[in-house]
Structures are given as structure tokens and as C-alpha cells.
Amino acid sequence: MRLFIRSMARRRSDSFRRFAEILALACLSLPGLPDRAVMAATPLDAAMSRPFEVGAGLSGNYLAAIVAGSERDTLAAATFFNEALRIDPKNRDLIDRAFVASLANGELDQAAPLARQVLAHDRGNGLARLTLAVDHIENNRWQAARTELARGGGDRSKDITSTLLTAWTFAGVGDTRRALSTLDTLKEDVFQVFRDYHAALIADLGGDVAEAERRFASAYGAEHNLLRVVDAYGRFLARHDHRDEARKVYKDFGELLPSHPTVVAAIAALDAGKPLPPFIQNARQGAGEALFGLGSSGGRQGDELASLIYLRLALNLAPENALAIITLADVYERMKQTGSAIDLYESVPKDDPLRVNADVQAALLLETLGKPKEATERLEKVVAAHPLNEEALTALGNLQRSRKMFTESADTYSRVLALQTVPDKNQWILYYYRGIVNERSKHWPQAEADLKKALELNPDQPLVLNYLGYSWVDQGVNLDEAFKMLRRAVDLRQRDGYVVDSLGWAYYRLGRYDDAVNELEKAIDLKPSDPVINDHLGDAYWRVGRKLEAQFQWNHARDLNPEPDELPKILDKIKNGLSDKPT
């Protein structure tokens, strides 16, 4: 399972999706993001940032910065560009590049002076203006921030970044009325959620309870599936003696995304009679919240640079925002900068409800780096400290399953299911995974029961239909029902080579070799580099008399790194073919 955070905005309204698209485009068109941006296409292999030393010459540092940028290593890119700029301090191109690289790496203290140098030769650079405005907000220089935002240009009625931050600068000096009137210049429906959400936060901070309640209700009514809106509204209700209503707001979100740690912690606090303080305590944090919302909305695949910059700026203003830290870590994950992602997950405040999930994700990233011992030790440590945490237990079970520790994995999945006393459709995947490991450890009755339970919870789930149907065919039982399952799975996943392979292999096991060839050829078109499918197609070709083609498929399977216990069987078929009677 991935972090719950990644699922928090799955069910957005059409209007909000439109807003996210507009925002992403607006982020990417920020003045100051050069066409030859620091972030270019990344290699597929993940690698942690390695130690590096700056060079003595301009060209060496410049080329090293370009390479680091192409690998999306923000630390190295910022370091090398700034070193190159030290050698050639008047070079405008280097000033621009060092500025963007420093900003992407979260070095506002370095980016702000560079922003002033950028403006010396490009006074209309909106990103430089935004950077200086954030620097002023961080230091409570509200009028100076407002001046920079005004100089950024653009139509205030459509410039959501400038409008939100300008409103928070008025809130910083206690002028709630001017702050709200500034927000209300965002009149388009697509901005409603952001407008009313921040208006509610500002009114609440300024002590205008009635206006805050009206605005919260408006934002929540327009989009009640956004965690941040839910949490802010729930905290507001709880602080104003509407704890039952607050509990309902959280529980309704829990129906969308069960067991989210922020929601679980809030409901536990409500049940225990504990206070739920607002997470925005001052205008600086409010401005950070605005930048966080913009960064998280604009972070589509391939759009990482704009998202990265907004999130970095947000964390300068609100460094304790765990959701912003995790969102930024996710951006680094997608950029294959695994080491930086792990560092960010480890920086989530230890007392935050999201810390456990951050630790789990850091452990899973260690696994992707080829550090299984460290990954297992970290997950086991998390589970030992939080034995009732379903996310940590599920991650451990998945890790054990991937390592073929089937008995241990089954026990871990059982622990998760024991915590979930109320049946829920989402449990299908746990029964499915436990069914797999039970089948792999030769405990078929338990596996069959788990797979049937998974189908009971999610009747049209193609993965379960495929696994159970194929298992029955392999055993020669329940054949009519099994083939119905396999055909249904193929109908649902026509582009899944593994599912199509299962149907083809089922035909083979029943001696229907022409049908097997037909399906397995489809499967090989979908997954040409899978050794198992190539091996299966070779067997089917042999049975229909196409022996030369069979040899080709077996040789191909041999060269595709098959499982160690399958390789001798493939080599024997290459040498001797198949026996006359199928086994």
C-alpha cells in the first residue's frame, strides 16, 4: 500500500479538477523558470545523492551542474551552479540558473540575494518577486512583501498566488477586512475552494467567528473530500463547542479514506475530550499553507519543478507542516531522488500522526535501493512501536511476501485483519495477498478460503478471478466456474499479459492446445519480455507441431532471467523437447 496521503484527493469534483489543471499550467508558466530548466528528464534507476566535490574551473562546475540537473539532484545542481557563479559572478545565465537551483533545493537564504540579482537584469521576473515576498513574510515585513507581490504584475482577479499571499500580508498586520476583500477578488467558480478556505482561516485568526463559520461551510460544501479542508473545519467546530459536528466531519471523510492517521488522531482527541487547536497559528503559517496548497495541486508527473519550488517556499514559512513535507518527499520519489525523499520522510515531526506513515515509506524506499536488511529492521521497529498500526503491518507483510517469507507474511496479514473487526470492501486485497502466500506455502484450503473471501468482498476483481480460476484449473476442479472466472478476468483486463496468459495456460492444461496458442500469442504481444509467458507459448507451440517456433520461445525464455528453479526445466526442453504425454 502507498501512503494514505496520496489518496486524499482522489474523488475531486469536476470543478476542482479543472482548477488543478489551470493551476498546474499557471505554475509552469511562472516567469523565471528558464526554458533550459534545471530539472530535465531523469534516468530510470533510483540512486541516492552521492558525496561530491566542487571543481576549480568554471566549465567543470557548469557541466557538473547540468548533469546534476538532468538527474534531478537538486543539492548537487545548486552547489555546482553557485560555485560556477562564484567564479563568474556577472554571468546572467549563471545567476538565473543558480537562483532556480537554490530555490528548488530549499535554500531561501541563498535564493533571496540571487533573486535581487535576477531582478537587476529582469525586473518583470515573477518568480524572483515571489521569492522576495516569501522572504519578507518569513521576517514579518508585511508591507514589503505586499509591494513585491504587486510588482509581479498580472491580473489580480486571476493570479491566485499573488492574491492569496497578499491577503495573508493584510492578516499579518491584523487587517482582516482588507484580507477578506482581497480574497474576494477571486470571483471565478474554479477558485471557490481556495478562496473560501483561506478566508475562513483568516477570519478565524482575526476572531471573526461568524464569518469563519460561513466560509468554512462554503469551502467544505464545495469540496468535502480534501483532507486539509476537513481537518481545518473539524478543528474549528471542536473549538467552538460543536464537537459532535466535528466528529461527523471526520467520520464522513473516514468513509472515503478509512483509517487515515490524521482523522484517527482527531477522532481520538474528540473522544477523549482533548482540545484540537488550529494548525494555522499566525499569518506566516497561513501564507505557507497557501503555497502548500498550490504546490500539491500543481505536482503532476512531469511538472515537478514548479511543485518543488512552491513546496520548498511553503516549508520556509511553515516548517512543521507534515503534510507538506510528505508531499515534497513524494515529488522527490517521482524524480527518482530516493535519498532526498528518505531524508524528508525522516524530518516529519516525531509527534505528528503522519510520522508512522513517513517511517513506513522510508523503509519501503530502502528496499528499492537494494537495502533489504535496513528496510526490514526499520519496518520491524515501527511495528514493534506501533503494533496496532495497519499501514505498518501491511507494509511488513508485503515486504515479507516479496522475499518469499510466506508463512511470516500470512501471519502479518492475519494481524492486520484481526484489527479490522468490521467487514469492508477494501479488505479484499489483504485476503488476496494472504491467499497468495498461503497457496505458495502449500496451504491450499486456507488459500482457497481467502481468495473466495476476497471475491465475496469485491466480486469483479480481475486479479482474484485470475488467481482462483487458474488455481482450480491447475488442480482440475471446478472447471466450468474456473473458466468463467478466467474469461471474465480477461474481459476486465484485456491489456494485462499475465491475465491473458493464465487463460491460455488453463487451455493448455486441459489439452486444448489450439486455444492455448491463440491466447498465449495475445499474451506475448502484451508482455514480450516475460520468461514465463515465453516458456508457456513454447510448450503450446510444441504440442501443435510448431517445434521450431517452440525452440525459439524456450531460448528466449532462457535469456530473460527466469526463476532459478525453472531454468533447468527450460534447458531440458531446449535439449530434448517435450515428452509425448503431457505431465
What labels describe this entry?
single chain, 583 residues, mainly alpha, Serine Threonine Protein Phosphatase 5, Tetratricopeptide repeat
Summarize the structure.
This protein is an all-alpha fold and 583 residues long. Among the domains are: 408-453, no CATH class; 491-583, Serine Threonine Protein Phosphatase 5, Tetratricopeptide repeat (Alpha Horseshoe), CATH 1.25.40. It contains 31 helices and no strands.
CATH superfamily of the domain at 491-583: Tetratricopeptide repeat domain
The end-to-end span amounts to: 39 Å
H/I helix tally: 31
Quickly give the structural class.
mainly alpha
* Backbone shape: globular
Main sheet overview: none
- How would you state the average pLDDT, rounded? 88
> Strand fraction band?
under 5%
Highest-level CATH class of the domain at 491-583 = Mainly Alpha
Q: State the total count of DSSP E strands.
A: 0
Q: Please compute the radius of gyration using only Cα atoms.
A: 28 Å
CATH architecture of the domain at 491-583: Alpha Horseshoe
Contiguous runs where pLDDT drops below 50 for at least 5 residues: 1-49
Describe the structure.
By secondary structure, this protein is mainly alpha-helical. Among the domains are: about 410-455, no CATH class; about 490-583, Tetratricopeptide repeat domain (Serine Threonine Protein Phosphatase 5, Tetratricopeptide repeat, Alpha Horseshoe). Helices cover about 70% and strands about 0% of the residues. α8 packs antiparallel against α15 (about 285-295). It is globular. It starts with 13 loop residues before the first helix and ends in a 7-residue tail after the last helix.
